[in-house]
User: What shape does this take?
Amino acid sequence: MTYVIALACVDVKDKTCVEECPVDCIYEGERMLYIQPDECVDCGACEPVCPVEAIAYEDDLSEEHKPFAQAALALFAEVGSPGGAARAGLVPDPLYVQALPYQGA
Amino acid sequence: MSRRPIRIAVVGSGPAGVYAAAALTDRDEVCVDVIDRLPTPFGLVRYGVAPDHEKMKSVAVALRRVLEHDRVRFLGNVELGRDVSVEDLHRYYHAVVVANGAAVDRRLGIPGEDLPGSFSATEFVAWYSGHPDSALDQFTLTAETVIVVGVGNVAIDVARVLCKTADELRPTDIPDHVLAVLSHSRVREVSIIGRRGPVQAKFTTKELRELGELANADVIVRPDDLQLDEASEEAVKNDAVVRRNLDVLRGWSERTPEGRSRRLHIRFLLRPVGIIGQGAVTGMDLARGHLDGHGRANDTGKSMTLPAQMVLRSVGYRGIPMPGLPFDEEKGIIPNLSGRILRDGAPAPGEYVAGWIKRGPSGIIGTNKHDANETVRCLFEDIARLPSPEAREPDGVIDLLRQRRVRVVPWEGWEAIEALEIASGRARGARQVKLAERELLLAAALSREIAT
Assistant: This one.
């Protein structure tokens, strides 16, 4: 199981979650951040600190946000398990995210 | 400004201490020694997270990277007070960060609390985690009915472990002697009881849901217990965790049990009044409560007695006073402001605190990262004014410990323990099986000398 970052993060990328993550499993893409599902230890530190409430536990994702779980899986199927976001570069946004209309304020 | 080398001692190698060490090494001139009274690192990640929560335990992978850093040194089996004093530490380090957590339990304060058969969840968790301070035979699980008092994640952990079979736990790191006791367990009924309503309970949804997945236990919730007052209705609207918890509990209250070998009851609005028994626990007197509109429980005047042969109180951990350090008896923490230790209300130079002993025993593993970062920010603000240690040699403290015949366990010693535990695991189909006996741990660890 894992946590998933969904729509509210797109074109916002606050990144407070990255500082909180004790295992550094939150990777930065062009338009949003992604949690590596295998590296995530389910500690829950990220969820409450997101200022736009973009993060949910996988089981609690609403229907409309489930594609974000799939998108993260697709992304990390490509990218693998880099073992720490601090030393990884930007990750490529998966197609689902690339296709989203602009969400910024 | 020239940057002199700064040496910091961190007391405690659990998440708080390790996250503090991580933040400290952000500055190139800082070196950190992390001491722990146990021969093994990781604190409650090793001795608190339940054996079947392997994913949670893998946070240790991130923690170990910190302890393996060039400028961080792990010194195990070194106890503040017994082996080295706060004064000693000031002699060798510019600052001390105390992160030794909360070692004991909060008591219920009711008659019969000390009867044989009445324990704290803390003790049970330490036992099934193989803590070296636990007696191997402290728990025998001859009780048929167990009452767990408290509705937080620790209560859920202990109830879940009580409801699992030895077969289910065999592939985890649970120590061999615990597995043996579990395979003879007579436990059939476990009741988790909370004083207030379901909305006031502190457990989180993921942990709660897991109970529904127990292969060998039916979870039973009484619809009457799921009462909500106005304050609870408000909380349900505003708090997603509370809302989800209630959904899970409601679901269980509408299910018929499937006749599994064990039954796990989750009950609310029951306040423990006394533990009864002659020479050993035979039950618990409870007062039935009802919510007052503000989320508080008042007695209804009705009471009941539940039979039980074991009671586990799970109403929180508590810090203990450390020699040479101030202590707030009421809160069970070291008095501090944002992590700067306060003596008589004023910040003490070179003294800091992080984790549970700073803020109280709350939050989850990850909460300590934020907490430790705050403390280290304060330390860095103070860095130019930290008192210089008298002793100049970086390994003066090792010499001192040697003179005192302290058997210091270096990082390589922990690696030796780990190798032995992995080898033990092979015999059982587990990745690693914890060794519980202190002398075995030390013997394995001390085959390596400290590299200086």
Remarks:
- The beta strands of chain A are 3-5, 26-28, 33-35, 55-57.
- Residues 66-79 of chain A form the longest helix (14 residues).
- Chain A touches chain B at residues 1, 19-24, 41-46, 49, 57, 59-60 (CB under 8 Å).
